[in-house]
Amino acid sequence: MTAVLIVDDQATNRLLLSKLASSIANDIQVAAFEDPAGALAECDRSTPDLIITDYKMPNMTGAEFIGRLRAIGPCQDIPVMVLTAYDERALRMAALEAGATDFLLSPVDHAEFVSRARNLLQLRKQQKLLESRANVLADELLESERTREETERNDREVLAQVIDTVPAFIMAADQSGRCIFVNDSQAQYCGGAPVDYVGHPITLLLRERAHRSLEQDREIFRTGKPIPGLEEEITGYDGAKRTFATVKTPLRDASQTIVGVVTISTDITARKAAEERLTYMAHHDALTGLPNRVLLLERIRSEMQAARAAHQRFALLFLDLDRFKAINDGFGHPVGDWLLQEIACRLLDHCRAEDMVARLGGDEFAILRVGLGHAEDPAVLAERIVRAVTAPIMHKGTPLYVSASVGVTVFPTDGQDSETLQRNADLAMYQAKGDGKNTYRFFRPALKERMDHALRLEVEMREALKLDEFKLRYQPQIDLQTGVVCGLEALLRWQRHGQDVLPPGRFLPVAEETGLIAEIGAFVIRTAAHHAAEWLREQGKGLRVAVNISPSQFLRQDVFGLIRETLDATGLPPELLELELTEGTLLDDRPRTAETLRALSQHGVRFAIDDFGMGFASLGYFKRVSIGRVKIDQSYIRNFPASREDSAIVESAIALGRALGIPVLAEGVETAQELAAVREAGCHEGQGFYFSRPLAPELILPMLQKMKSE
The whole model's pTM is what? Predict the structure, then answer.
């Protein structure tokens, strides 16, 4: 049986490697160990033919394991294949110096693994055969000198045949530096036959590599220890260069005296090329061929060291394409990919050879401008980049237009480490987007302060949800003809412990960005429905409650399921829950949003158009869902009817409501003059401080009773 020993702390890897090893031949016997110490104990008891080990393990590295293995007498020459997922030369060299025979990157290519393992087992087989022959030779020496000489002659012939079958370069040299034997593969690679080199100085065979080889051989004669883990480039007689992994071991006679050094070199050219390809792929973008974020980060760190030493500056620009999604969705992903490649070319054209242009992913790019002189302004480059991206790109006769939002940071003023520099460039880029896009912005400390504030606010909001710090207040909506309360709008407030009440405008934008709006919105809907159901039970008359709902809630959660579950749990009739939606939500043609709105409408839930006049009105959404109310934004009520523009919007909204039979509500009514103006214009309902400030839920019924008595 052929024994293969596997050492890996991952059960999945042990199972996979065991199956692959078992497939090499029918007589393979595999033993797998999680603990390297257990594997060493097994090697003490029984010598395997091949060891396959992971490099990084919890209790012992692959290098330590191999070093201790080589200290076990029978295991000095056992082939050892090292597997690792880390493409680091230092790790590879440590493993080879400890005595590794071969080295393979993980995850392994199954075919390559089987081929390499088969070769190593063949090599081990030949080693055992050589040992067997040596033992036979020793026995025959006891019988007669004649038999010894005949056996030696036969063994040399067999040895020569065996050596010639091994897929590696094998040679041996004595202490004087003369070639004892060389296999056919190595002789042919050097342009001759074995007979041309045996008995001659190894300089004839190795040429310029001979001096180094002789020094290594002398070290082995001195210490008696093998030298593993050598990588060298060998040039054949045809001028072709190939890379080999070389191991050197002492050659001993029957009395264990070192009589020579055996050198075995395995061709790893294909493996090295594969490693280089993998390294390139790990550091470059597949679509554009530009360096990726990993390589950019390495370059930034390198430039930081150089800039500190030379007291220089460099700039980092982050840019994000504006409107790329529209082109990608409208023309298709192939055109989008082509556009990204064209943008990459434009960026390269406007940068120097020593600069780095990288693609960070999606439609995000980065430019590292190095060697920035004290008088050089990165704004010039940023302006040039913005113009270059904005210029139309022709695709099959059709001009495509995109623009770029660019954030600029400068080392060392904007960051002392690569992560900070990148984060600040990102913040500056988002500031450029917020300022209208198609422009650039430099990082300013205020941006970080704003980000830090948002992060703190997010943490506090999550804690506020746990501590029940969010409260609802209700502002009455008044029928302008009768003066009675016709509905209530639920308004969210944050009562932070020991602090002032925080209005929604101070924290809801952060909730939108972080996704907390879904959880907060669900709280508002459930709480408002609960209060409305209580008022219905206590006064026997329903009171409509309006709840604002964010457009992003339709994308982040199942709004229909949430509302249906809430209505079922509270017993509130659907017509008493009114959802206030922006015009943008109603115009959203994404299937999920449109389907949710239709389902809610069919379920009996009514909608109000909030802040009417602030968006892009369309009569189409009046057909798709049940619009129960149009709310005119308070900004138009302030100057009504003095402002001609505001008057036009207010009068148009009222005319639209009258034509469709939908009540129109004026928001933000604060004075008697405003009330008179909107009432005269034909508004059906009003809401604002003139009637009432937002009230706590326990004050609603007393307020209704008071108004009824008056």
Answer: 0.49
